[in-house]
Amino acid sequence: MNAPTRILDTMTELHRFLFCSAHAGHGQWLSAALREEGVVLQEAGRPAQLQQRIGDLDPQVVLLDFSGEPTGHADDPLDGGIAQATELAQMLKRVAPKLPLVAVGSLVRADGMKAALRAGVHDFIDMHSTHDEALDVVRRVIDHTPTVSVTTAPQRHGRFIVLLGARIGVGCSTLAAHLSQLGQEMSVGADPDRAEKTAKAAKANANKDDKFDSSLLGHVALLDLGLPSGDRLLYLNTQSQFSFAEAVQNLRRFDETLVHTAVSHAPSGLAVLPLPLDLGDMRSVAAADALALTDRLRAFFDLIVADLGGFSNPAFVASLVRAADEVWLVVDQSVGAIVSLASMLRDLEEKSVERSHLHLVLNRYDPRYGMAADQIAKRFDVPLLATLPDRPLAMLSATNQGKLIIDTARGDPYVRALQPLVERLLCAQHAGAASHRHSSGWLGRFMGKH
């Protein structure tokens, strides 16, 4: 991996850890343990195959499974994959000598530990330890790994927000469109001249032969991945010829030029990546690749809003949820939505998503409809982020004009309820760099046991 592919390392808090293993349970344990520091992308395969994947995903740390535990597959190697992990470590030492390697296994498994030691890994995670101890290991490795700084790279590292509708029809798509559009307008609207230039830049972007000031575009991006497909484009009165699936396929060449030429923009400058017209194209999009794309988008946008309302692949949804800075569960007061919310929370917990990572947004809220907002939040033990008022007439009137309610009634209660949420997202400060952590000596622990 050469220097240009590592530009993102210095521009986002989200680290990518590639775990090379066929053990699904081990991957889930690592994802839960390392969630505070980054996202675990799991890949299984021979070293030759994994070399290409490592180049595509550009991880900060590669985790190798030296546990020696069989997966139960018919083609399991006799040593539980230790030889394959050793071969992969040796290959990476040759092709990417600066890439940190961390072994995953057990301090009581002598053959795995000895193989990891001979392979020259940088540190070791004992899967019989606590999540905090595993987190300390990767933080220590990251702290001692030099990064490449590229001064010409865009200096953004945007927040990634996922919206999950409890079920189709609770208003998740409407919220996503309004939230991202208002975020774009508020990010440039403080300067009226800048806002006018942004509108002109978006029009120029529609005509690829015109030149435009690309710095005016790309403050906010909307990942239109919810169902029914294309609703957000309809609300934004925007068309797109470049889909999320195509962006993933072009991940290795996804740069500022592609952002401002291929990606569609609404008149406000809001960037939109929708589902492909043929939803079958999403079958070729691996969760790891989708995560790599969202990570890269952080370099070009201040805020990325992903609408996953109605998306039917639980593993895909869970992987993006774990990568998000915030996850908003969108629900209304109907019995069906409340039941669906309970089911969704169970599914997320099974995928190692912590409930403390979630926020509740109660849409179409009216106290006269029944259960109060604080009662719902308390019932599901999810903090209540906001209530958005029920405005069916104003919403339908705006939609029938091909507009958002932001455009037709800026002072509407729904817009007023959204404004503090957008301000909160745009003003949120990222945590500082991790403090220096001293080595705890995994080799010493191993030698002490043997």
TrEMBL record:
GO cellular component: cytoplasmic side of plasma membrane; cytosol
Assigned keywords, A-Z: Phosphoprotein
One Gene Ontology molecular-function label: ATP hydrolysis activity
BP term (GO), one: negative regulation of cell division
Lineage: superkingdom: Bacteria
PROSITE patterns: RESPONSE_REGULATORY
Record-listed 4-aspartylphosphate modification sites: 65
Domain Response regulatory: 16-142
Protein name: Response regulatory domain-containing protein
Organism from which the protein derives: Pandoraea oxalativorans
Organism lineage: Bacteria, Pseudomonadati, Pseudomonadota, Betaproteobacteria, Burkholderiales
